[in-house]
Write a structure and sequence with these properties.
The complex is a heterodimer of chains A (261) and B (311).
Chain A lengths: L1 H9 L14 H15 L6 H17 L3 H25 L2 H11 L2 H12 L7 H5 L5 H31 L4 H25 L3 H21 L1 H10 L2 H23 L7
Helix pairs in contact in A: 3-8, 4-5, 4-6, 4-8, 5-9, 5-11, 6-8, 6-9, 8-9, 8-12, 9-10, 9-12, 10-11
Chain B lengths: L1 E10 L2 E11 L2 E6 L6 H8 L7 E6 L2 E2 H4 L1 H4 L2 E4 L11 H11 L4 H14 L15 H12 L6 E5 L7 H14 L4 E6 L2 H5 L4 E6 L2 E6 L1 H5 L6 E6 L1 H10 L1 E8 L2 E7 L10 E2 L4 H8 L28
Helix pairs in contact in B: 4-5, 5-6
Classes of the chains: A mainly alpha (261), B alpha/beta (311).
Chain lengths: 261, 311
Amino acid sequence: MKSHRNNRIRSSAPSTFDDIDYPDEREIRLHVASIVEKALPVRPSFPAYIGGMYRQLGFRHLFRDLTEIVFVLLLGLGILVFMALFMLENANADSLYAFIFIVSPLLYLAVSLIFFADLRRRDTYQVEMACRYNVYQLASLRMLTFSAVCLVLNAGFVCWIALTSGQVDLLRGLLLSASSLFAFAAAFLYGMLRGRTAAGRYATVGLWPLLNAGLWIAEPHGYRVLLSGVPIYAYLGLLLLGAAIYVGQARELIHFRPKLS
Amino acid sequence: MLIVRAASRRYGDDPALERLDLEFQNGVYGLLAPNGAGKTTLLKMLAGLLPPSEGEILYDGEPLADLDEKYRMKLGYLPQRFGYYPGDTPLKYMQYLAAIKGMNRKEASERSELLLDAVALGEAKRRKMKTFSGGMIQRVGIAQALLNDPRVLILDEPTAGLDPKERGRFRSLLTQLGRDRIVILSTHVVSDVESAANEIILLKDGRVFAKDKPEGICLMLAGRVYETKIGDAEADAFRERYAILAERGEPDGWRMRFVSEAESALPQWQAVQPTLEDVFLYVYRDAEGRAPERMLFPREPAGSGKRGESV
């Protein structure tokens, strides 16, 4: 190729594309890589992205409102324990399963709601939205962390109920609690991402306690039997489904853009 | 290069901006318009916070929506209302913003300290921001916009709350920054951009009314701006007839600066070089020919005439 080009130059023939210096292998690879990157951009996987964001931010910057979060969690936990004490005095095993199912998402609801409620009203919203990790990307990581913390606190709560009452099967209680938490959390994020109005968003949130309390009041026996009679693997299935949908919603938050009017 | 291509923005059925076509290369661009003319909407669109209802905005040939965080990594943005956490010190807030801008901890600390010194807040960097004046908060806002050494710097009314000395310092900072990046700032204070901006963009009725160098913008009124002295008896009729840019009460009448569309000037009229402020006042005068009230005062300080300034 090179000698052919040199011959042409020496013979002063009209220049063609062959006269342009042919790039070496390294240069070709670099150009191909840059074209491929532009045409088919590789996005890091969700876990890799979330991990990278956590390493970049650290706990200190991710939870600026740590005092408020800890306060809400402790207050919520206190209320749950108080309600549980009442239930332990008066309820049988079926009622305790129903109680665990209903209250398990409440801690998550409390900490998530105070975060989302003022997200767009905060003065810092615009500044933070113009940063590399914007408000919704931070929210995704926070939501995942909130759910993990609530999962652990709920597990401790269920263990305490199981030990104190002696009527609750620990495995069933834990699965009931975790599946309830993730089913609610998935519905919560779905409502927050897709609700067109504030009323629509909060309706999804309010539906959970209303639906469960309504069923419990309307058909107490049937509701209790349903929760305690469903096989454990069905709860395991609900847990996996809820968790998968929840992580999917959290992933959507990464690329979420609010519809500004 | 940042390109706005046929971009419109509507709020419901109300058009805020209509089919804007703009190009920005390295340099300082002053977006000049009265309040409510769509400056903030345009800047939010350029910052990627607000998608255009129609059209597109490209940075180096790629739509902002596709670039997403790659664009935000190159962006510095000061919103019109700069929010902060009142319990934070400026240093802590800057370090937080540096972290979410993707900077490493060492770089974040160094840049934060350097920039707080640059905006004369070095000594107040460990004071809580809730004790700060409006001007000090605004200076933190300017410093944070520069944290990641942005290639595109968007500043929405950056001089609001700054005193004259701080404004002067800010203008020289702008000139330096504009050498190797795109700097776009909005203001309704002409003096903020008169000396610092390479190009001025005038927005009117949601469209680009003019985009040119400051000298080019001034040429719009070349040969049409005059000053003259008018007696009390003729003053009202004069105001009715001409577009008054400024007027000052004097012991025996009024000194008027005005625009005349007539081809021949009266002998007592003195032709003057139009300034950017003259163009601003003329372009944005209301239906009765009155200039925006708030803009008349900067030319002549209050108390300079027996009767004071009038609009």
